[in-house]
Structure formats: C-alpha cells, structure tokens
Amino acid sequence: MSQEMRARAMIGSRQLLVEREAPARDRALAHLAEHCADRAFRIARDLLGEPAAAEDAVQEAMAVAIGGVARLRDPAALEGWFYRVLSNHCMRVLRRQRWLAVWTRRRAADAEMEAASGPVPDAALAEARQRARLLLAVGDLPAMQKAAVVLRYGHDHSVEEVGALLGVSPKTIKTHLVRGLRALRAALGEER
Which of 8, 63, 70, 185 would staple 190 via disulfide (CB 3.0–4.6 Å)? Predict the structure, then answer.
C-alpha cells in the first residue's frame, strides 16, 4: 500500500471517529451548558476575581472538556471532571497573572481611602471596610491556598471535593487551608 493510500485511509478513519463522537460531544456540551455553567462561572469568578476572566475561563474549560469528552471513561463523572478542568485552568491563569494581587491591593486601598474620607463610619461602612481587607488578603494568598479557601469557604465544598477539583489529596487541602487561614488571620490582625 502506498504512503498516499495509507494517509487517505487514516484521514477517512479519523473522520468516521469524529462523526461517531459528535452526538456524544453534543450531549455533553448541552449538559454542561445547562447544568454546570452558572456554578462554573461562580467558581471561576471567585478564583480569578473578575467576571470577564471568569467567562473566558469557563469557555476555555468547556472547549477543553468537549475536546476531551471522548476520552472520559465514565460518562457519569462528566461534571466532576469538568470542574477539575476548570479549576486547573484557573490555577494556570493565576500563576500566569501575578498582577492580580497588585490590582486587588489597589482596589482595596481605593475603597479604604474612600471610606476614610467620608463621615464617621457606621456599622455598614465598617463591614464594607472589613470585606475589602478580606478580599485584599485573599488576593495576596498563594494560588493553591487561595483556591482551597475560596472553594471550601466561598463555595461550601467539602475538603474531599476541593481535593478532587484541584487534583490533590484531602490532607494537602487541609494543609493549604490551615496555612491560608493563618495568613488571613495575620493579614487581618486577628488572634485565634
């Protein structure tokens, strides 16, 4: 068989494979869009800090998930696998964009200055200041600690679920949570 004929046979077999996988991909995309998109957006927004970045992350994760859905051995694990793909993508974005901490610091400083320039603070203003300080402190955490804290306390995932989403053991998540909470307490000046 000539090399050209082998190449045509390979292209034809790939085309058949793609045509057979198309209905499964379409069903998976429909399921992810219908059942997972809102939760995925909230997770990505809390991890990345910006709605636009979260939308991009969800779209990227869906593209990766749809491209790899044929390799998924257990179709029932689609949602968990998708959230893991999303979490991994967000972690890569955080590692690439260290400027996020600088932006968060500026935002918190601006809120602090606005609050300080106003009248005597009342309870709502004090709460807003505390929230701004907390956001600043969370933004300054290392990527894994930030992800663990946001997913555990911001999205009420169990330690086991956070570990599955981030691809590490529950013991590792507990370590990141302890270190992250310790850093947050220190940043906020709280004693335990």
Answer: 185
